[in-house]
């Protein structure tokens, strides 16, 4: 569990296999399949579509929380890299739209 804890706090885990196991666990949970099925799928997925789909689902969840603008919920996302990406993209897109309006 020490390696898993290290992974969860963005440290390099003592056991490098824990990162793959955690990813398999997340995919299995998200797509409601056994971990063995998730692992087999990931091993036969050279384009890494499973991981890309998982990232899109996580981004969409963060974006929905951002849009709801609920202080309590946003507090839960506070340290999330995905929420940081959502926030950056939202402000960058807004800034680009404002700049485009200024040029029109």
Task: Calculate Rg over CA atoms.
Answer: 18 Å
Largest sheet: none
Q: Percent helix among the residues?
A: over 70%
Percent of residues in beta strands? under 5%
Describe this entry's structure for a reader.
The protein is extended and about 55 Å long. With 104 residues, it is an all-alpha fold. The chain is 78% helix and 0% strand. It is built from 6 helices and no strands. α2 (17-31) packs across α3 (35-43) and α4 packs across α6 (81-103).
Topology:
Blueprint: H1 2-8, H2 17-31, H3 35-43, H4 49-68, H5 71-77, H6 81-103
Helix pairs in contact: 2-3, 4-6
Short note summarizing the structure:
By secondary structure, the protein is mainly α. Helices cover 78% and strands 0% of the residues.
Keywords:
104 residues, mainly alpha, 6 helices
């Amino acid at each position: 569990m020490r390696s898993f804890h290290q992974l969860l706090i963005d440290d390099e885990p003592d056991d490098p296999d824990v990162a793959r196991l955690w990813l398999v666990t997340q995919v299995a949970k998200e797509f409601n399949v056994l971990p063995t099925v998730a692992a087999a799928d990931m091993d036969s997925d050279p384009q890494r579509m499973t991981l890309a789909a998982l990232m899109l689902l996580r981004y969409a969840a963060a974006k929905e929380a951002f849009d709801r603008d609920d202080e309590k919920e946003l507090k839960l996302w506070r340290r999330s890299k995905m929420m940081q990406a959502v926030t950056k993209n939202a402000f960058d897109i807004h800034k680009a739209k404002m700049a485009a309006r200024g040029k029109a």
